[in-house]
């Protein structure tokens, strides 16, 4: 018991306002923007998908993010304990935290493999073999990499060891310091990339694909995917933002932080989209290429500019860093749960998490080679973990959290938390967020989920 109290007393906090923003943004911005957003938009017909994604972000993402941050800061503990603290005795809301831990493992399993591809591409970019605007060349390079089980496994384990190392340094030094320095650089490089791509021959076709909706392509499963992406993008539904909220200072403005993170995150996704689709149409790639899309088109864009190879190395380094910030926030959830719930020292909790991930994650590293024909419910392990986490657990976690705040925690306590105990004068924001959480977000999320899963 003594020990447990010590943990709470010694919890880290983010030290500065900018640091909070950078770390929270660091969690949101990641391969979701650079890899997942473009490939899902491409596979689901472009602008219509984008529109639904935007709607989901505003109506569901924004209020749920405020709810997670507020609950986290109020309780100042890991997701499971936080919900136990704030819920009436005996009600099992803490299960949201437990489900979140499962989601964290599933997401990290495939995410770490994509980060592994990014790390590997840093070295391939240095070697120069992938720099080409010929789809056959860039596709062959990508397929050769993911088809090799030994390479895939080793890169993934390397990534996991790297992440474990940063987490051992602790919250302020590890997560905050890295995020603060490097996020702006990524933004800058994407801007350059975008400018290059927009000057290509068929740039307008790419832009039309991204911005002119074709409503015939919007199916219920596309809508579920767009909503799942909104959760995934803002790191919602599994306690990652809740955990970061628990490190927020008391004077941090939660609604303002949420809006800024969402806006910046959206900018990064849009820049990635505008860097990729003009090139897709100019060089004859398939927009629906799937998870390979970024890895095969980005080299083509770089092949068009002087010093392209050097800049491509920089791009993959920065993508690796953005992915690292996101991975840290995911890994932090099981680590802090093991540490605070089971009284396992933080170091050992980190190592345990990393080790389990090396095991579970290897099923994703082997998905494109040894296990290529192994499927459950018609999906390989990589896609299955992605589907279950993004399209089932995260939305379900979001629904339950919204219901918890809207119907159990209540307007007064939520408003108190969002206004920093009355110090901020933001009753309209609070009222709007509460209304959405109580009536709109959970119902909408549930409908989309049931329809998308063919249960309705
Ligand atoms: N948002 C991150 C991205 O876009 C991924 C991520 C980090 C995440 N933490 C999360 C997704 C928690 C879901 C839940 O790359």
Bulk shape: globular
Number of structural domains = 1
The parts where pLDDT drops under 50 for at least 5 residues are: 1-9
State the CATH topology: Amino acid/polyamine transporter I
* SSE sequence, one letter per element: HHHHHHHHHHHHHHHHHHH
Please count the beta strands (DSSP E, at least 2 residues each).
Answer: 0
CATH-level-4 superfamily name: Amino acid/polyamine transporter I
Bound ions, cofactors and other small molecules, one mention each? tryptophan
Query: Quick check: average pLDDT?
Result: 91
CATH architecture descriptor: Up-down Bundle
Describe the biggest sheet? none
Question: Strand fraction band?
Answer: under 5%
How would you classify the helix and strand content by structural class? mainly alpha
Radius of gyration: 21 Å
Assign a percent range to the helix content: over 70%
CATH class: Mainly Alpha
Ends distance: 48 Å
With helices defined by DSSP (H or I, 4 residues minimum), what is the helix count? 19
Family: Belongs to the sodium:neurotransmitter symporter (SNF) (TC 2.A.22) family.
Pfam families: SNF
Organism: Rugamonas brunnea
GO molecular function: symporter activity
